[in-house]
């Protein structure tokens, strides 16, 4: 019996030991499995939407044809599709797979190329970039098991067992339920509202304020907590603390301290992205310190009015640069605030109409509030009344640079599908250079209006840098559309309606256009006998490859074509086809003519049959392809075309005459004229030609 009892005790002990061992192993497996979890992203996710500075993610299969394109090669602009960039770079193929993404600074001259079945586009510049490589963890780097997104709106529910989880906070965290996901140890420090997941009636939905918890939370990449007081630097980045109730901001040159409660409010809804106006909110080590905004810009401790739909005939994203310099004085500063309040009322602020933020400038600029802070005119007017004057000089150029780099971000309410508009209020004259900052802002797709009041006082003239700054900074220098001069601050109320009318006239807001969606492009194609049937098909493929890179519709870029020998034939006009596929099909159907070579007559014919019918707000671009010397003069017809606003590009093949190519091309010749030794090499100039078109577009006033 004793032996039996001992055997039983041993068996029980052994059983408990095996059970504990098995349980420990299973727990270890689960822990390891959670650590190795790789989040999946959609084919259409753009790098700029994910704010993690470095992450590993899994792309699903079938990502080669996505909504968002790829811009760049090796280094990609951050509004590119992440998965499509990975396919283009050869890291994965169309079956999907894991990729490693690293965020880097913005670049100039992104190079387009065709690789692995994906066409990437060139781009003059963009503010953030990223690299993709094989999805292998780097030593010493901890990768997130959930990704943080810059948009605060909920993402559509995925199929199967995957679902989107939207917690309170700055990021939208996408968590997949198929695998246990450990709670991240760190989160972004921010102050935002609980995201709204249903928007059935925006007009009756009031956003709920959320205050920051007392404990500061930061990501591994975020900057360490800094002191609560900061001086505004040239780049206008401001420090921000995350105290639970209030903070004190010391305003430079004023000696005035303001108590400003910290709370933010959720924007009603976003809108589709567009190449020209979409910007990315990611910055390396993103935190509230690095966004370029002090905490006040999103603040109002009182409950807001219900979200308004607003004036839907005036959907613009608007920033007012408010003059806070000492020269304006206290009384005129109050008149300026009253004017801005009246403009806000006249605009009809709302989620489906205009949104408005304010940046005050003096020595340095700072954001009073951004686009998503207020969703109706009443709250906006109340906030304007509380703005205190900064003081300092009138550094308008610095303020424009600040707005260009920091204001129109998705995280700050930029909607992408709405034109970006800046209205600059100037008392007297700027005290720094404005021309360069204005040019860079225009190239970023920002429409700039100037409201100048009075002239520089006698004691201010010594600080004036550019006496004729208005003539230098406006896009349409002769029309006066973008400039309003008011003789006195006391008559400022008279220009409320004229300004609102211009700001809302989206047909004339030319900077909402880009090099890819704002041209009438006419191809003038040599169909002479020396070309031959086979080479003619190669030329048509070249024409198609160029055309498909543009955004084609009856309101965007339009394509027309002329073929010539001794005679000329209109293959199709600008208004014939309004979709890209119809244009490509029409190019494919062009039949080879054969005959002599009268290039001069063809230029005159294209000017009359194509470009004379171009829309006033379109850039007229002629692309002429020829393989030999013309039987007639080309210089006079080309000069006439140039004088009528036609931007001419000449592409010569084989026996084309260099002197004629230069005469046809718009100056400078080296940027508008190309030569290839044989037809089969035409494809090499597709990207170069598009890049030159975009560079020329960005460098010229938008008339």
Automatic annotation (TrEMBL):
<protein>
    <recommendedName>
        <fullName>Cochlin</fullName>
    </recommendedName>
</protein>
<comment type="function">
    <text>Plays a role in the control of cell shape and motility in the trabecular meshwork.</text>
</comment>
<dbReference type="GO" id="GO:0010811">
    <property type="term" value="P:positive regulation of cell-substrate adhesion"/>
</dbReference>
<dbReference type="GO" id="GO:0005614">
    <property type="term" value="C:interstitial matrix"/>
</dbReference>
<dbReference type="Pfam" id="PF03815">
    <property type="entry name" value="LCCL"/>
</dbReference>
<feature type="region of interest" description="Disordered">
    <location>
        <begin position="180"/>
        <end position="227"/>
    </location>
</feature>
<keyword id="KW-0677">Repeat</keyword>
<dbReference type="GO" id="GO:0030198">
    <property type="term" value="P:extracellular matrix organization"/>
</dbReference>
<feature type="domain" description="LCCL">
    <location>
        <begin position="59"/>
        <end position="130"/>
    </location>
</feature>
<keyword id="KW-0732">Signal</keyword>
<dbReference type="InterPro" id="IPR004043">
    <property type="entry name" value="LCCL"/>
</dbReference>
<feature type="domain" description="VWFA">
    <location>
        <begin position="520"/>
        <end position="693"/>
    </location>
</feature>
<dbReference type="GO" id="GO:0005576">
    <property type="term" value="C:extracellular region"/>
</dbReference>
<dbReference type="InterPro" id="IPR036465">
    <property type="entry name" value="vWFA_dom_sf"/>
</dbReference>
<feature type="compositionally biased region" description="Low complexity">
    <location>
        <begin position="180"/>
        <end position="226"/>
    </location>
</feature>
<keyword id="KW-0325">Glycoprotein</keyword>
<dbReference type="InterPro" id="IPR036609">
    <property type="entry name" value="LCCL_sf"/>
</dbReference>
<dbReference type="GO" id="GO:0007605">
    <property type="term" value="P:sensory perception of sound"/>
</dbReference>
<keyword id="KW-1015">Disulfide bond</keyword>
<keyword id="KW-0964">Secreted</keyword>
<dbReference type="InterPro" id="IPR050525">
    <property type="entry name" value="ECM_Assembly_Org"/>
</dbReference>
<dbReference type="Pfam" id="PF00092">
    <property type="entry name" value="VWA"/>
</dbReference>
<feature type="domain" description="VWFA">
    <location>
        <begin position="317"/>
        <end position="499"/>
    </location>
</feature>
<dbReference type="InterPro" id="IPR002035">
    <property type="entry name" value="VWF_A"/>
</dbReference>
């Amino acid at each position: 019996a004793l032996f039996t009892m001992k055997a039983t005790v041993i068996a029980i002990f052994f059983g408990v030991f095996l059970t504990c061992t098995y349980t420990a192993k299973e727990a270890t497996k689960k822990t390891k499995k959670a650590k190795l979890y790789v989040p999946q992203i959609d084919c259409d996710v753009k790098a700029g939407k994910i704010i993690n500075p470095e992450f590993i993610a899994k792309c699903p299969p079938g990502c080669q044809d996505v909504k968002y394109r790829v811009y760049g090669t090796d280094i990609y602009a951050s509004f590119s599709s992440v998965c499509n960039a990975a396919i283009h770079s050869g890291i994965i193929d169309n079956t999907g797979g894991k990729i490693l993404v690293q965020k880097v600074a913005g670049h100039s001259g992104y190079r387009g190329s065709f690789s692995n079945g994906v066409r990437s586009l060139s781009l003059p510049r963009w503010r953030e970039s990223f690299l993709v490589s094989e999805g292998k963890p780097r030593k010493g780097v901890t990768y997130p098991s959930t990704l943080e997104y810059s948009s605060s709106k909920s993402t559509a529910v995925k199929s199967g067992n995957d679902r989107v989880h939207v917690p309170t906070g700055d990021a939208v965290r996408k968590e997949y339920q198929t695998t246990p996901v450990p709670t991240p140890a760190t989160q972004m420090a921010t102050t935002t509202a609980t995201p709204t997941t249903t928007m059935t009636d925006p007009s009756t939905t009031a956003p709920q304020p959320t205050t920051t918890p007392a404990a500061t939370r930061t990501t591994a990449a975020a900057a360490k907590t800094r002191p609560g007081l900061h001086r505004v630097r040239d780049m206008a980045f401001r420090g921000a603390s995350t105290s639970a109730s209030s903070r004190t901001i010391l305003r430079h040159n004023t000696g005035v301290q303001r108590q400003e409660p910290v709370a933010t409010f959720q924007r009603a809804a976003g809108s589709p992205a567009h190449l020209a106006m979409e910007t990315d909110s990611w910055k390396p080590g993103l935190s509230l310190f690095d966004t370029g905004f002090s905490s006040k810009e999103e603040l109002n401790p009182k409950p807001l009015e219900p979200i308004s739909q607003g004036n839907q005939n005036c959907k613009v994203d608007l920033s007012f640069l408010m003059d806070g310099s000492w020269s304006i004085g206290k009384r005129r500063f109050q008149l300026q605030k009253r004017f801005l309040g009246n403009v806000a009322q006249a605009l009809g602020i709302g989620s489906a109409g205009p949104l408005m933020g304010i940046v005050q400038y003096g020595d340095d600029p700072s954001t009073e509030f951004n686009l998503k802070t207020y969703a109706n005119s009443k709250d906006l007017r109340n906030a304007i009344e509380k703005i205190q004057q900064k003081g300092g000089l009138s550094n308008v150029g610095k303020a424009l640079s600040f707005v260009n780099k920091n204001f129109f971000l998705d995280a700050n309410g930029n909607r992408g599908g709405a034109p970006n508009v800046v209205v600059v209020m100037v008392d007297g004259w700027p005290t720094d250079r404005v021309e360069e900052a204005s040019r860079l802002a225009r190239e970023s797709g920002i429409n700039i209006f100037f409201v100048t009041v009075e002239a520089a006082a006698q004691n201010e003239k010594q600080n004036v840098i550019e006496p004729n700054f208005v003539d230098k900074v406006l896009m349409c220098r002769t029309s006066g559309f973008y400039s309003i001069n008011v003789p006195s601050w006391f008559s400022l109320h008279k220009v409320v309606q004229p300004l609102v009318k211009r700001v809302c006239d989206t047909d004339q807001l030319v900077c909402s256009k880009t090099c890819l969606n704002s041209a009438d492009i006419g191809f003038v194609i040599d169909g002479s006998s020396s070309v031959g049937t086979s080479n003619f098909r190669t030329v048509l493929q070249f024409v198609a490859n160029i055309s498909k890179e543009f955004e084609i519709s009856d309101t965007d870029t339009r394509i027309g074509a002329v073929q010539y020998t001794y005679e000329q034939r209109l293959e199709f006009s600008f208004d014939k086809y309004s979709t890209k596929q119809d244009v490509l099909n029409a190019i494919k159907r062009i039949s080879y003519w054969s005959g002599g070579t009268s290039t001069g007559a063809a230029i005159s014919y294209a000017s009359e049959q194509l470009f004379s019918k171009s829309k006033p707000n379109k850039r007229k671009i002629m692309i002429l392809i020829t393989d030999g010397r013309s039987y007639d003069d080309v210089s006079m017809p080309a000069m006439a075309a140039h004088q009528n606003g036609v931007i001419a590009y000449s592409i010569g093949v084989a026996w084309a005459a260099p002197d004629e190519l230069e005469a046809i091309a718009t100056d400078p010749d080296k940027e508008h004229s190309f030569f290839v030794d044989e037809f089969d090499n035409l494809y090499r100039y597709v990207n170069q030609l598009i890049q030159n078109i975009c560079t020329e577009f960005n460098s010229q006033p938008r008339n």
